[in-house]
């Protein structure tokens, strides 16, 4: 008898069409590792992918209870914000934060945001704009400042650089050390000085300052080995021979070729001040200071003097008398020039008021003898040391800087046309004229000595920098002096040999349309490519740029302190060091790039970092979970009562 064969079992595969069927919709999905099974998202139950099994599961009590529970929690679908509007909103937030950083206090953004919404209600960029002082502060600290710092460090790269240092105290009596980095910008093709950091000073001794500086350079990924020069004022803690910031950097951090540049402005100011203290009569400084004080805070005196000046000069108005400031470089010259230009008018004014005031009486008596002021101060700014030296005492600048002035005096010095001419015109006794002449000669001697004492120890290397001018570089006949400069900057022998070869070959290239400016000329040389596609003068360019990086003045860091005092004022005295650094960095970079808040385009990757969940105290790239609140962080950016009106409203005048 023949046995019948068993019917082969049919294997049903999962069909995606089931997911759109009304009875299976929203809960049926395939099993990822088995195409013959399906899973219920509500019950988390697997079953065979057969229509009968699926229908049977849909009728179970468990499944119906799950469906009922889900139906009670119906989800409301919101229409998403268009991507274009979202990008515009972020751009608006970035631009507004940039505007606040460049022009205003952070609390201004509270009303500015609401004002924009009120003025532009139909603007797609403003509809979802939410930016107030707390979020604006975090955008500045976590988005904008890191962006500009990243661009700065990218521009510096692995190049050599110099730094400029100075210290100052802000309105909250916090001592800061300003650090400016000077480097060759590949973006701008120029040597620039850029703000790097404003570091709080915990210890003001040499070790503390040096450690803080090295830590700052390390945190910004600037190798200490690439440091070629330090520019600073003449403070002993910075420039002392035994235990100073410069000596610590040079010895402990293996920088034997580090060059110290004392600020030229500070050096000249100190030299003139010391020479003036020993040679110029005290009553001259008294005259300058008291003349300013006489008018400074008195509207009545200014009005009376303006009437006298107007009467003498046929309706013209007088210029303001300038203040003599000890910390302002060579401020005596404009102050003296202003007094000399108004000499007759001032003399009349003090003559009319001398009976009423002792100071006015003293100023009137001081002004009666023009020789005391005119002869001494005219020589102060016109004389040069060669007027008191014998003719063959100094031939070159180097001879002058090393000559012993007292041992090479001219027995009959000629103090210049202005001095000699006034001496003949003014009728004064010969012995008095001889005394004035001796004072002028002594001032010139003291000035020369003070300048000599403040010269950098590596003056020879700085003198050789003149070789790098366009005129000297392109000469057909040159010596090998360039090697001395290369060794001073620490270039090894193999590179010095390449520099010498390139030095004697650079004049054979036709540098068309090249600028006479030294920096621009070497910027053009740095872009030169030969037939093989590389720069045949790269080593020489490295030497030239290294030499040009040396700072000659710390005026740039003084400007940073000026901006610091504007940003952190008496009203905004609680601004944190982080926010202060961010604002100074952004402002300085914008000025360096010659951009403004409306011309600078923030990259899209920067705008994408502006989110609703920027966390306090974290960088924009980190994961965050804390949503910003309208609270003002304590001691973060500004005082809570920056607006004077708000402050007055809080005062209870009834008590």
Furnish the topology, listing elements before pairings.
Layout: E1 28-31, E2 34-40, E3 45-48, H1 51-58, H2 61-72, H3 83-103, H4 108-119, H5 124-127, H6 133-156, E4 161-169, E5 175-185, E6 190-200, H7 206-219, E7 227-232, H8 236-239, H9 245-252, E8 259-262, H10 264-279, H11 282-296, H12 299-312, H13 332-341, H14 343-353, H15 358-367, H16 370-382, H17 397-402, H18 417-425, H19 430-453, H20 459-464, H21 470-473, H22 482-488, H23 493-503, H24 518-526, H25 538-548, H26 555-567, H27 577-592, H28 604-607, H29 644-649
What's this entry about, in short?
This protein is an alpha/beta fold and 655 residues long. The chain has helices at 51-58, 61-72, 83-103, 108-119, 124-127, 133-156, 206-219, 236-239, 245-252, 264-279, 282-296, 299-312, 332-341, 343-353, 358-367, 370-382, 397-402, 417-425, 430-453, 459-464, 470-473, 482-488, 493-503, 518-526, 538-548, 555-567, 577-592, 604-607, 644-649, and strands at residues 28-31, 34-40, 45-48, 161-169, 175-185, 190-200, 227-232, 259-262. The protein has 5 domains: 16-72, no CATH class; 83-149 and 562-646, no CATH class; 155-262, Nucleotidyltransferase, domain 5, CATH 3.30.420; 268-453, no CATH class; 460-548, no CATH class.
Global structural class: alpha/beta
Describe the main β-sheet briefly.
5 strands, mixed
Mass-distribution shape: elongated
The value of Rg in angstroms is 38 Å
What number of domains?
5
Total DSSP E strands: 8
- The end-to-end span amounts to 120 Å
Strand content: 5-15%
Neighbour order of strands in the largest sheet:
6-5-4-7-8
Mean of all residue-level pLDDT scores: 78
Number of helices: 29
Low-confidence parts: 76-81, 366-383, 617-655
> What is the helical fraction, as a range of percent?
40-55%
């Amino acid at each position: 008898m023949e046995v019948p064969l068993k019917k082969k079992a049919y294997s049903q595969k999962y069909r995606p069409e089931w997911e759109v069927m009304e009875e299976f919709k929203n809960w049926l999905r395939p099993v990822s590792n088995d195409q013959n099974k399906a899973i219920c998202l509500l019950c988390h139950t697997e079953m065979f992918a057969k229509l009968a099994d699926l229908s049977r599961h849909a009728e179970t009590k468990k499944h119906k209870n799950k469906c009922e529970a889900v139906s009670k929690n119906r989800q409301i679908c919101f229409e998403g914000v268009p991507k274009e509007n979202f990008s515009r909103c972020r751009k608006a937030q970035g631009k507004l934060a940039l505007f606040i950083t460049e022009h205003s206090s952070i609390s201004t953004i509270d009303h500015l945001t609401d004002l924009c919404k009120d003025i532009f209600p139909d603007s797609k960029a403003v509809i979802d704009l939410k930016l107030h002082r707390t979020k604006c502060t975090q955008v500045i600290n976590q988005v904008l400042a890191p962006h500009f710092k990243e661009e700065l460090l990218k521009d510096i790269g692995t190049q050599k650089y110099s730094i400029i240092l100075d210290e100052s105290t802000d309105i909250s009596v916090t001592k800061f050390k300003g650090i400016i980095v000077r480097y060759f910008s590949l973006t701008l093709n120029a040597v620039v000085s850029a703000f790097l950091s404003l570091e709080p000073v915990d210890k003001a001794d040499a070790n503390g300052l040096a450690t803080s500086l090295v830590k700052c350079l390390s945190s910004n990924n600037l190798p200490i080995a690439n440091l070629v020069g330090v520019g600073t004022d003449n403070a002993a803690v910075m420039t002392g021979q035994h235990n100073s910031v410069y000596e610590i950097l040079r010895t402990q951090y293996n920088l034997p070729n580090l060059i110290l540049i004392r600020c030229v402005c500070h050096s000249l100011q100190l030299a003139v001040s010391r020479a003036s203290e020993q040679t110029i009569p005290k009553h001259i400084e008294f005259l300058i200071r008291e003349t300013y004080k006489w008018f400074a805070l008195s509207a009545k005196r200014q009005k009376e003097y303006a009437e006298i000046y107007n009467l003498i000069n046929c309706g013209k108005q007088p210029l303001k008398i300038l203040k003599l400031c000890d910390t302002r470089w060579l401020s005596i010259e404009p102050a003296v020039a202003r007094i000399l230009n108004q000499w007759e008018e001032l003399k009349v004014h003090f003559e009319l008021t001398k009976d009423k005031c002792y100071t006015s009486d003293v100023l009137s008596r001081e002004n009666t003898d023009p020789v005391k002021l005119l002869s001494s101060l005219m020589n102060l700014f016109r004389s040069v040391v060669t007027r008191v030296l014998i003719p063959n005492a100094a031939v070159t600048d180097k001879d002058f800087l090393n000559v012993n002035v007292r041992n090479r005096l001219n027995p009959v010095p000629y103090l210049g046309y202005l001095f000699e001419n006034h001496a003949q015109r003014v009728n004064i006794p010969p012995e008095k004229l001889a005394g004035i002449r001796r004072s002028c000669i002594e001032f010139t001697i003291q000035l020369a000595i003070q300048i000599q004492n403040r010269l950098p120890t590596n003056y020879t290397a700085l003198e050789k920098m003149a070789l790098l001018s366009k005129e000297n570089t392109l000469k057909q006949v040159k010596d090998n002096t360039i090697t001395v400069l290369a060794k001073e900057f620490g270039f090894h022998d193999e590179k010095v040999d390449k520099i010498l070869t390139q030095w004697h070959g650079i004049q054979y290239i036709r540098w068309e349309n090249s600028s006479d400016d030294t920096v621009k000329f070497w910027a053009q040389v740095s872009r030169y490519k030969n037939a093989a596609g590389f720069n045949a003068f790269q080593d020489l360019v490295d030497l030239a740029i290294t030499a040009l990086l040396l700072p000659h003045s710390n005026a740039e860091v003084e400007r940073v302190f000026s901006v610091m005092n504007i940003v952190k004022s008496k009203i905004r005295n609680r601004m944190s060091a982080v926010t202060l650094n961010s604002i100074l960095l952004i402002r300085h970079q914008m000025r360096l790039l010659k951009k403004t808040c409306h011309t600078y385009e923030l990259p899209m990757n920067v705008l994408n970092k502006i989110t609703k969940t920027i966390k306090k105290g974290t960088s924009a790239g980190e994961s965050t979970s804390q949503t910003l609140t309208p609270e003002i962080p304590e001691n973060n950016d500004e005082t809570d009562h920056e607006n004077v009106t708000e402050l007055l409203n809080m005062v209870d005048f009834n008590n």
